[in-house]
Amino acid sequence: MGRSGPALERWLSIRFNESKGGMTMRRTIRLCVLVGCLAGLLAVPAGASAQTQPWSTFTYTNNMHPLGFSARGNTTSPFTANSDLAFWGKTAYHGNYDGFRIIDVTEPDNPVELNDYRGCAGNQGDVIIWRNILVRSWNSPAPAGATCDGEPVPQGWEGVHVFDVSNPADPDLVASVETECGSHTATGVPDPANNRLLVYNNASSGACPGLDIIGVPLANPSGATLLHDFTQVPAGRSCHDTGVILGDALKAACAGGNGFSVFSMDPADGGSLEQPKFLYSIVVPGVTIGHSAAFTWDGEVIIFGHEPGGGGQARCQATSSTVDKTLFFFDADTGAKVGEFVNPRPQTATENCTWHNYNVVPTSGGYILVAAQYQGGISVVDFSDPAGAKEIAFADPAPLSTTQLILGGDWSDYWYNGRIYESDITRGLLIWRLSDKAVANAMTLGHLNPQTQEFTIG
């Protein structure tokens, strides 16, 4: 940490217990007792030493400030990964191929892992959190002998598991809902009128187009059931990921295949939360693997991203086709294209790179996107003018290898309550602060499932 001698290295460790959510946790404070230590404290954020700071290999803009890091290493052979994120209060739920982590992010410069739960290894590991209910995607047919939370998983089973995480130290599997083609990703849709959480399940399979609709009763989550095998999508759109906006907009956009499809949950259109009404589909030229869709907070614009090569290839090189590096913006009502943005930072031949998971900052001051690009890292894009979008911040890691392509980088990057949370496939969870006037008036949320915008702004 830059301390130069024994006289400057006097530290005092104080341990104390505190209660949080009915659970007692032990914290440690390390206090520097000599003034000479101050320089070291200013040089390195709390909770990380110079040797463990992953951002030491990053190139990043002056308005991006690394804060904290919670390590969870993963491997590429056999492939395991840190995947998606969801947030409730000051707790982050970090999905992975082995299960999920529960992380206290009360202090962003010192995230504290409460549990690395590895008892449900159904790969992908997309997560939804609602109060004390966690829903996790199981993506592929279960092999013989598979288990989840110590319970047998029938061979060939795939779908979603529902956990009670009220005790972070001991998550409890309360329901298993099988779907025909599994769960690649899932989107949570609160339905307070019926005291339940709906799950829009995305199989990402041409054999199972559209969405599955699962109902999770909040008073009895063990009663979770498949409500609808929802397949009324023309041209067999396979939904890879679905963005939802409620409030005045009441729309869903499912990305998959060669574009995206839009649905309405508005009764005026004949739709509902339980049975969205198909509105239209858009084919995007040059796209073969539609990946993500999100809305601006006023519900006016859809952000559509795709994943050429499935995310495992180097598709952001200077020589890559323009469409491979492009993020698209569409009018949410008509489907008309209103703009696009091309990755401005070419990556090397050893860096897997495409646009991946992202969300829009909740502010009325403009359209600001926080997006993941695998080894392209974090990209913050101002698309207040969709036809003139520009990158205003980034954090780009060095290649994992300069001689071979190693799968890694950012699975998900999201804005939540003044911080950017970065899910790195092979490293863990990184937390950043963005100091930019574009996000100065962003709202504080009580929770966030990034694929779901529960209200509209503006």
Topology:
Blueprint: E1 11-20, E2 23-32, H1 38-43, E3 58-60, E4 64-71, E5 82-88, E6 91-96, E7 100-104, E8 112-117, E9 124-130, E10 133-138, E11 147-148, E12 151-152, E13 159-164, E14 172-178, E15 185-191, E16 196-202, E17 211-217, E18 225-230, E19 241-245, E20 251-256, E21 259-264, E22 277-283, E23 290-295, E24 301-306, E25 326-331, E26 337-342, E27 358-360, E28 368-372, E29 378-382, E30 390-397, E31 410-416, E32 419-424, E33 428-434, E34 447-448, E35 452-453
Parallel strand pairs: 19-35
Antiparallel strand pairs: 1-2, 3-30, 4-33, 5-6, 5-34, 6-7, 7-8, 9-10, 10-13, 11-12, 13-14, 15-16, 16-17, 17-18, 19-20, 20-21, 21-22, 23-24, 24-25, 25-26, 27-28, 28-29, 29-30, 31-32, 32-33
Describe it for me?
- The structure is a single chain.
- With 458 residues, this protein is mostly beta strands.
- It folds into 2 domains: 1-43, no CATH class; 44-453, YVTN repeat-like/Quinoprotein amine dehydrogenase (Methylamine Dehydrogenase, Chain H), CATH 2.130.10.
- It contains 1 helix and 35 strands.
- It has one helix at residues 38-43, and strands at 11-20, 23-32, 58-60, 64-71, 82-88, 91-96, 100-104, 112-117, 124-130, 133-138, 147-148, 151-152, 159-164, 172-178, 185-191, 196-202, 211-217, 225-230, 241-245, 251-256, 259-264, 277-283, 290-295, 301-306, 326-331, 337-342, 358-360, 368-372, 378-382, 390-397, 410-416, 419-424, 428-434, 447-448, 452-453.
- The strands form 9 sheets. It has a 5-stranded antiparallel sheet, with no helix packed on it. A 5-stranded antiparallel sheet has the order 8-7-6-5-34, with no helix packed on it. The protein has a 5-stranded mixed sheet with strand order 22-21-20-19-35, with no helix packed on it.
- The longest helix is centred in the first third of the chain and has 6 residues, at 38-43.
- The radius of gyration is 22 Å and the shape is globular.
- The model is unreliable at 1-51 (pLDDT under 50).
